[in-house]
Structures are given as C-alpha cells and as structure tokens.
Design a protein that fits this description.
Distance between the termini: 35 Å
Mean pLDDT: 84
Number of strands: 6
Helix content: 10-25%
Strand content: 25-35%
Order of helices and strands: EEEHEEHE
Shape: globular
Length: about 100
C-alpha cells in the first residue's frame, strides 16, 4: 500500500513510533514492538468493538498502532484507510 509512520508521546514524554515500508515491513520502538508481537495480541477495531485478534494486514497494523501508541495523533506518508465495518443486518434489530 505505502510507506507511513505513526508517532506520539506517552505520559512520561517518551517518543513512541511505528514505521511501515512496503518492501521492508515495519519497525517500532521497543515497547510498541513488544505489545504488537505478543502471542495473544488483540485490540478493539472501534471503541465499542469488535475485537481484532492479531494483525492480518496493513490496515489492521495501522489501527493497532493507533491503539498501542499513546497520543498517536501524528502521521506521515500514505496511511491506509481504516476499513469500514460491514455487518449483515440482524432480524431482531430495528433500524
């Protein structure tokens, strides 16, 4: 998709970041790397769910970076679009 970076500062002022490049994958600060590579890593796709287990693709990596990097309000490059959720309608839900 593209080359992009997400960064922010945690509560102590420490810089947290993740860089993605198409040809080399991704690299991040030590704490972010540890969280993203944890065996049972998951995160909410939206504040109320659903839950994403693992990082299957680049948009999911971007969404995960926004979750694990505190204050990740800074971006550069071609960040992927956050995928829209498409659920089939449920019979018992009134719209």
């Amino acid at each position: 998709m593209g080359d992009w970076t997400v960064w922010g500062r945690d509560g102590t002022g420490k810089l947290r970041w993740l860089n993605h490049t198409d040809d080399q994958g991704w690299a991040a600060d030590e704490e972010s790397t540890m969280r993203l590579e944890a065996p049972n890593f998951g995160f909410p796709v939206t504040p109320t769910g659903p839950w994403q287990h693992g990082i299957p693709d680049e948009p999911a990596l971007y969404a995960a970076a926004l979750v694990v990097i505190p204050g990740a309000t800074k971006t550069a490059g071609e960040v992927p679009h956050h995928p829209a959720l498409d659920y089939p309608p449920k019979d018992d839900v009134v719209y």
